[in-house]
Design goal:
By secondary structure, the chain is of the alpha+beta class. It has one domain: NADH Oxidase (3-Layer(aba) Sandwich). It has 9 helices and 4 strands; from the N terminus they run H-H-E-H-H-E-H-H-H-E-H-E-H. The longest helix is centred in the middle third of the chain and has 25 residues. 29% of the residues are buried. Keywords: Flavoprotein, FMN, NAD, NADP, Oxidoreductase. It is an enzyme of class 1 (oxidoreductase). GO terms for molecular function: oxidoreductase activity. It holds the Pfam family Nitroreductase. Belongs to the nitroreductase family. HadB/RutE subfamily.
Length: 196
C-alpha cells in the first residue's frame, strides 16, 4: 500500500507551487528534460493510449518560430523562458495500441470513430500535460501553462503534416519569486464537491 507524501512534498507539488510567468536565467539541460519525461510517462491514460507528443523549444530560433502565434501578453515571457513545451496530440495514437494496450485489440474502436479519436486525444493529452506540470514541480522546476495562442498558426508552423495538433503550451524553468502576484483564491470544498 502506498504511503501519504510528507508535507514538504505536498507543498512542493500543490500547496506552495505557483504558475510562473518569469523565470531565472538558468537553462534546463537534456538530462532534466529526459528525467521529466521519464516521470510523466507513468501517468494513467485511457487504454494506456498516451496521445500526447512534446515539442520542447529551448533555442532562440525555435522560440522565434513560435512567437508570432502567441498572444501579446504571452509573447515576451515565452521567448524568455528557459524551455517551452508545446503539448500536442497525435491523431493516430491508436496505431500504438496493440503494443501499449495488449489486454485486447482496442485499435478498431478508434479506426472507425473520428469523434472518439478526438475526444480521447484531447482528454488524455490534457491529462499528460498536467502530469508534465507535476513532474516538473517534483524535479524542482516551475511551470507556467498558457492557452493564449493561435492554434492554427502553431499547427501550421510546427505540425504542417496534420498528424499532430497543439493542445496547450507550458513554459518551464526556475521561477523568479519576485515576479509573483498574490495567489488567487480557490473554491471551497462545499462550492466544488458534492458527496452522494
Amino acid at each position: 500500500m502506498s504511503t501519504i507524501l510528507n508535507d514538504a512534498a505536498l507543498d512542493q507539488l500543490f500547496r506552495n507551487a505557483r504558475s510562473f510567468s518569469n523565470f531565472l536565467p538558468q537553462t534546463i539541460d537534456d538530462d532534466t528534460i529526459k528525467a521529466l519525461y521519464d516521470l510523466l510517462k507513468w501517468g494513467p491514460t485511457a487504454f494506456n493510449a498516451q496521445p500526447a507528443r512534446y515539442l520542447v523549444l529551448r533555442t532562440p530560433e525555435a522560440k522565434q518560430r513560435l512567437a508570432p502565434a502567441l498572444s501579446e501578453k504571452n509573447r515576451a515571457k515565452t521567448v524568455a523562458a528557459p524551455a517551452t513545451v508545446i503539448i500536442a496530440q497525435d491523431k493516430r495514437f491508436f496505431d500504438e495500441l496493440p503494443q501499449q494496450f495488449p489486454a485486447y485489440d482496442a485499435k478498431p474502436l478508434f479506426e472507425a470513430n473520428p469523434a472518439l479519436v478526438d475526444a480521447t486525444a484531447t482528454r488524455n493529452s490534457s491529462l499528460q500535460g498536467a502530469y508534465l506540470i507535476l513532474a516538473a514541480r517534483a524535479l524542482g522546476l516551475d511551470a507556467g501553462p498558457l492557452s493564449g495562442f493561435d492554434a492554427a498558426a502553431v499547427n501550421q508552423e510546427f505540425f504542417p503534416d496534420g498528424e499532430h495538433n497543439v493542445n496547450f503550451i507550458v513554459n518551464l524553468g526556475y521561477g523568479d519569486p519576485t515576479s509573483l502576484f498574490a495567489r488567487g483564491p480557490r473554491l471551497g470544498f462545499e462550492q466544488a464537491v458534492t458527496l452522494l
